Amino acid sequence: MWRPEDLMLYEYDALSSLRQPDVVAFPRNTEHVVQIAQLALRHNLPLVARGAGTGLSGGSVATEGGILLAFSRMKQILEIDLENQRARVQPGVVNLDLSLAVADEGYYYAPDPSSQKACTIGGNVAENSGGPHTLAYGVTTNHVLALEVVQPDGEVIHTGASHWDRPGYDLTGVFVGSEGTLGIVTEVTVRLSRKPEAVKTLLAIYDQVVDATRTVAAITARGITPAALEMMDGFTLRAVEEATNAGYPMDCAAVLLIEVEGLKEAVEDQADEIEAVCRENQARDVRRAKSAAERDLLWKGRKNAFGALGRISPNYYVQDGVIPRTRLPEMLDFIGSIEKKYDLHIGNIFHAGDGNLHPLIMYDERNREQTARVSKAAKEIIMRCVEMGGSITGEHGVGFEKSDLMPLIFSEVDLELMSRIKNLFNPLGRLNPGKLLPTGKMCGELRGGLTGGGPV
Amino acid sequence: MSLAVDAVRAELAALVGPSHVLTDPAACAALAVDGKAPDCAVAPATAEQVAAVLRYASEHHLALIPLGKGTKLSMGNPPRRYDVALSLRELNRITHYEPADLTISVEAGMTFGEFQNLVGRSGLWLPLDPRGGAGSTIGGIIAANAAGPLRQGFGGPRDMVLGLKIAITDGKIAKTGGRVVKNVAGYDLGKLLTGSFGTLGVIVEASLKLFPKPPERATFTLRAGTLGIARDLRRSILRSPLDAQRLVLLDSPATALLGDSAQAHERPEAELWIEVGGTHRVLERCRHELRQLASAVGAPLAGRDGAEEAWERVSNLPLWLQQKYRDVTVLKAALPVVASEEFLSRAQQEAEAERIALASFAQVGVGIVHLCTLQDTLTGGLLGWVARLRQAAADLGGTLVIEHCPVDLKSGVDVWGAGGDDLDVMRQMKSAWDPEEVLSPGRFLGGI
């Protein structure tokens, strides 16, 4: 594909619209990828892999042009082995499709990004994606066991194994989250998880944001690790409720959506204890989903929140930062002060249990002065995360957007070591150029036009 | 060593202080690896000193082996060179700890026992039962990615490391990851260092994810007369809603070795041991489920009190068995879960053919099988037996590593087995981190 009107479809991800590739290729198998890699090498062209383009850091956009490898035709589930709890898939398989393929037998694939209806396993591997249910079960890297990787010179290597403890360095662990800068993944072996016997979903409703945030660390302090522990503030909630009718109360300051899973007896005990903790922390009400349908409705509200916010604001910018969960009350106060300082609306919807924040800043891109304020606000929030001992990204990746923020958390020595690794796999720098490592041009700045926003 | 030993000792003393350099021959002999003793040992007191020692070694082409308490040093190929033992035991401080965040940052030399005691006061633990147990160190556990039977319930160190500080051979200290539980900034070099057996850099500090300790635990044993019964039990347990923390199949010699004195007069039979954790109510439910599973295959179920000591032995096979059998050899096969029983059957046949006395400890839920030879002296057929078992593991889609054996055996075999099509990349990785081959040269896969 090379016509400009076709290429337009590939110039953006969920972060923003950046640049068109020179050509889009649709490989069907590993051999195609090998040939394309060799072609890119001969012509010294950038080579960028792309799944569904749902990323939030510009990772799958060919910001320096070149060949875009679209994996939409490599979407076969190659093997499902339930007794070993393994599946081998092509990178274009949609995350949710894998879970659905094994659901009848009582299994699922644990990492569940909010974009799971569209995003691909290959994209998840590149970004080391998370999701609401990673609190107890871990993120993509904890569920990926082996990879087939095409190197930029066309060599194919196989890392890891479907069994434990293969001797040698854990190259799989290095490739996961490397954002397409170390190789092109053409096959992924993942762990499948067994569905729990029982699930309980609770909605705790608060009149004060601070009470909700205090509850988070209080729950883990009781020795309970919920499967999911999400927070939404009142502003976000009202937008969501109007769009989805999930049954959230319209007049509260914040809710926590909490889920516990496991043996029936464990789940009952934990749900009781969580309810008690919520009430000790001034929850106005704690509701429990009484049926699978009620549970689905609560999650529908959460997973579609971003679309709902899109209804009330022409644009919004999603920040992705991490702090220790004990600092949540302080952080939410800070975000409130930033909202006032820059005269903006900020919605908060995030993975509270992990301390993974997603402040959503509303704006209108036609208002350039306001857009500039959004950038400043986003920057201040991420700086505060760093000061609190956190990270500049919990699950969206560094990509194009945050590569110049890397020096905020990594020293020159740390970054030099990362460059060494990159040079080893990608010596000419033609694999996904301009991503992950700092460009050295705009140290400490967010990059990318603020136009996007997708599910988190 | 290209320099005179005395000069090296003096210069190292200048870097870390004379009291942190050990030259006594007996002390050096105690730090021997595969029969080779270092010329001296250094125990730096700070991360910066570790880095300075590395830079010095790089400049003078010295070979170092980093170690904590040395509980896993019998793993690996004999070192090509070994001049200086680099002990991390003086780096044993907690640098950051917030129990409510379930995270901790700790220096590499802290012993696992001290660590567990400390976090245990807040009802937390690191759910690992590595070789070396309480006497091993945090750094050593990570460097060896050492997981025991608890990996059934919790995975291994790989999944618990949030960030690392690493001294590298050019004399600098690098950081990877962070101390928050979720973080995707930059390459995850922590994964690379975990299980790298001290061949890339020296782990000086680790940030780890902690877990709430289950309020109660219980161990049940199921009699598994045949491998067929064991397979059926394994399948039904893994398909049940139970979450086993540990699950190990002991053959009859292993049962006899671990047997409690009350049953000493009975003829030992193979047993499947399962440990579960949770509230009293959860444990009662587990007991009920297990009784049903057991009766379906006609396997009697029993509770086992005071199982912790027995579990520690299973985590610590070489150290424990060495007390009884001087030349014990411990093999570890890592297999697809479904292949565990088939591999055990092959191993038993091959052992009988070679007249090798054997005990097996198989973590059947994760496909890890430990085979231990029970004999005082090395027998001639052992190498052939190992080669045939390695082939059997490969045929079943797995790998086999010699975790512990007499030094003599190592001259005839690579303890790690063969590498795959990514071995070249691993060699390049080694060169990128340690171009002068300062760190544990020759100890790792493919002579890395």
Provide a brief overview of the structure.
Chain A is an alpha+beta fold and 456 residues long. Chain A is 34% helix and 20% strand.
Layout of helices and strands:
The complex is a heterodimer of chains A (456) and B (448).
Chain A: H1 4-7, E1 23-25, H2 30-42, E2 47-50, E3 67-70, E4 77-81, E5 86-89, H3 95-103, E6 107-108, H4 121-127, H5 134-137, E7 144-150, E8 156-160, H6 171-175, E9 184-191, E10 193-194, E11 198-206, H7 209-221, E12 228-233, H8 234-244, E13 254-262, H9 264-280, E14 283-288, H10 292-303, H11 305-312, E15 315-318, E16 321-322, H12 328-341, E17 346-350, E18 356-357, E19 359-363, H13 368-387, H14 406-409, H15 412-425
Parallel strand pairs in A: 1-3, 2-3
Antiparallel strand pairs in A: 4-5, 5-9, 6-10, 7-8, 7-9, 11-13, 11-14, 12-13, 12-17, 15-19, 16-18, 17-19
Chain B: H1 5-16, E1 21-22, H2 25-30, E2 40-42, H3 47-59, E3 64-67, E4 84-87, E5 94-98, E6 103-107, H4 112-120, E7 124-125, H5 138-143, H6 151-154, E8 161-167, E9 173-177, H7 189-193, E10 202-209, E11 211-212, E12 216-223, H8 227-239, E13 246-250, H9 252-258, E14 271-278, H10 280-296, E15 301-304, H11 308-315, H12 317-322, E16 330-334, H13 340-354, E17 358-363, E18 368-373, H14 382-395, E19 399-404, H15 407-410, H16 423-433
Parallel strand pairs in B: 2-4, 3-4
Antiparallel strand pairs in B: 1-2, 5-6, 6-10, 7-11, 8-9, 8-10, 12-14, 12-15, 13-14, 13-17, 16-18, 16-19, 17-18
Helix pairs in contact in B: 8-13, 13-14
